[in-house]
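User: Thanks for the earlier help. One more: SDR family oxidoreductase. Can you show the sequence and predicted structure together?

Assistant: Of course, both are below.
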Amino acid sequence: MSRRVLITGAGSGIGLTLARRFAAEGDRVALCDARADAIAKVQAEHPDFLARQADVIDEAQMDAFLSEVETEWGGVDVVCANAGTGGPAGRIEDMTYDDWKDCVAVNLFGTFLTCRWAARLMRAQGHGLIILTTSTAGLFGYPLRSPYATAKWGLVGLTKTLAGELGSAGVRVNAIAPGAVEGDRMERVLANESAASGRPIEELRQTYVKGVSLKTWVSADDLADMALFLASSAASKISGQIMAVDGHTESLVP
């Protein structure tokens, strides 16, 4: 049966891969992204998606998007709270308060707005799945990336808490913790870390592999595989879990 799937931060990268993979399963997809150009491209390539520009930390924009989805569908079966940002890189004493707030806001507060809406609908309908995108940075210390790690650790706590709040209503809540994911976003992260540390990008690239048991990066499709599993009947008793898809990270300390 076709599921109703909503994904935030899905104009590109992991989110767009999730959207395409769920759609390939025959599911209906609604997505949002803060970037107008990304949404325009998605609308042109996937006219069957309900794709809208909405910034996850703008309550008015999110209310408009989520209300449209609710009116169109009447409910929702899977919500992927995926929107995030890498934020600044550097020592904490060199960071501005605004940079810290902006990173935490997108990664953590934006997830609150999405989950608040999903929880209301799913509790009323008596079923549903919420998948948060955290990170292996939410499982380890992450030098030079303190606001990002702090926000991602917060998502771990939110996952565990919502699983407890919503379990009796038949709603499951899990998180996927990606490792180093191939793509444009990680290239920007490497550039920021290189500027902050003075180390060459290629040297930093190798540190991500060095700290992983399988000595590999992961792809957006690897993460989509996990999301589709969590949305399947095979995962019907899995809730409150942080599913690391990372080749087994041993350390994020360079």
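User: Great, one quick takeaway?

Assistant: The chain has one domain: 4-177+219-245.
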